[in-house]
Design brief:
single chain, mainly beta, Chondroitinase Ac, Chain A, domain 3, 8-stranded antiparallel β-sheet, 6-stranded antiparallel β-sheet, 7% helix
């Protein structure tokens, strides 16, 4: 059960159908028999449309894609985030506002590359909208770079006679002191923090950031005020991805109980703000309830004549991080669920609110797996850790005389979803029942 060293393509591949697979070759022509989504190392999702052909495709560590071409090359890359796709060999580009941006490459020889501008959007800045070029060189939309600044701390002087205010440079948090709120002049500071105690799985953190408000007089911290001060938080639509905006509330962190306490707030959905009055300072954040609860299975409704490769066939798992996770194939789904009775139909708007978080891996202790390009057989441990089963005797001790029927082949392209753990040279070092029982759900197994 030993073999050659595995060569890994550094890319996370996700299929839009849980039961269809493209046939991917390692040296000959790569054929995509169904839509295949590549999750690049930088987190960008790019879909190769079914029917695409290319001599070779390699995703690089810098998230660029290297291609070699032959006479039958015809490959289409599509971004459902409407990101700009750059092709070094040109191609026919099509951009559908609020739909997708794509490029079709039909170069017949040589090599080239594809990159994705993230997070620059294509359609709103296209000169003509729609098709922007045929073959040859060109067809790259002109885009504007995002202007949202990185959150930084801010401070301002507050007086007892006139009050004052402070606003972060990106407008994400601000405070207004009325006259008489403080008895002495001092300095207010707002410090954004991205490392903090989680409010729990039932709440999502708007923008992934909380804010430490502080007021000091002569170097001494003043935490309470004579009159209420007004805190206002501003967010954009991406900050509340996967959250129900109507449930947003301002919370403060109680250092005595190590818990987040809701203080409420007034939401203005038109301006994407929430404001609240408080009479003390500490750590504050804006939290909201997920549109779909963590741990649920969701999919789109399908038309009566929907093809097996239609995106509506895809089932996703909603993680604690408010992202949806893909089941690469039906066998992985079956390692977690016995049927589809728990799957819920959601709207396209709800589905779009959840960004792709990655692939679901096999539930530990259920089956063994091997990579198509490597003869080694692996046992699956927690969090997608693969452990080489060194001998047939060990495999038989773990799964019985029919152990070979408990092995699933997976494409090398999926290997990036897993990590390599310690070898299983002795069956006593891998208790599949204990490992399986510890993986109570996907959230737990993938440490979400």
């Amino acid at each position: 059960m030993s073999g050659k060293k595995l060569s890994v393509i550094a890319v996370l591949v996700m299929f839009v159908s849980v039961i269809s697979f493209p046939a991917v070759g390692s040296a000959a022509t790569v054929t995509f028999s169904s839509d295949t989504t590549l999750l690049l190392p930088n987190g960008v999702s790019l879909t190769v449309l079914g029917g695409s052909l290319v001599e070779s495709l390699v995703v690089n560590d810098n998230s660029s894609i290297s291609l070699t071409f032959d006479t039958d090359t015809n490959i289409t890359f599509r971004s459902y985030d409407v990101y700009v796709i750059n092709s070094s060999t040109g191609g026919s580009q099509t951009c559908v506002p609020n739909g997708y941006n794509q490029v079709t490459i039909t170069t017949t020889s040589g090599s080239g590359g594809v990159t994705v501008d993230n997070p620059t959007l294509g359609c709103n800045t296209l000169a003509s909208g729609g098709n922007t070029g045929g073959g040859g060189g060109g067809g790259t939309p002109v885009v504007q770079q995002p202007t949202t600044p990185t959150p930084t701390s801010t401070s301002a002087t507050i007086t007892s006679s006139a009050g004052g205010s402070a606003t972060m440079s990106n407008g994400a948090a601000s405070v207004i002191f009325p006259t008489g709120a403080v008895t002495s002049d001092g300095t207010v500071t707002i410090e954004p923090q991205t490392s903090f105690i989680s409010p729990g799985a039932a709440l999502g953190v708007v923008g992934g950031t909380v804010y430490d408000f502080a007021f000091t007089v002569g170097g001494q911290t003043v935490s309470t005020f004579s009159q209420p001060v007004t805190l206002t938080f501003t967010y954009d639509n991406s900050d509340i991805s996967g959250l129900d905006e109507s449930t947003l509330g301002v919370y403060y962190f109680d250092t005595d109980t190590n818990q987040w306490i809701e203080v409420g707030g007034t939401i203005n959905a038109a301006t994407n703000t929430i404001s609240v009055e408080v009479q003390h300072f500490t750590l504050f954040g804006v939290f909201g309830q997920p549109i779909v609860a963590s741990g649920r299975l969701i999919k789109l409704a399908c038309a009566a004549n929907a093809d097996i490769n239609d995106p509506c066939k895809s089932v996703y798992y909603v993680g604690k991080n408010n992202k949806r996770f893909v089941f690469p194939n039906e066998k992985i789904y079956a390692s977690w669920y016995s049927d589809f009775s728990q799957v819920e139909i959601v709207s396209a708007e709800t589905m779009a609110a959840y960004q792709i978080g990655g692939n679901v891996t096999y539930r530990p202790g259920i089956r063994m797996i091997k990579i198509q390009s490597d003869p080694k057989v692996y046992a699956v441990d927690a969090n997608g850790s693969l452990r080489w089963v060194v001998t047939e005797a060990v495999a038989q001790a773990l799964y019985g005389s029919a152990w070979n029927t408990m092995v699933d082949d997976i494409s090398a392209a999926f290997f990036f979803s897993y990590t390599i753990g310690a070898d299983v040279a002795d069956s006593a070092t891998y208790n599949k029942e204990t490992i399986r029982n510890a993986a109570v759900d996907i959230n737990t197994n993938q440490v979400l």
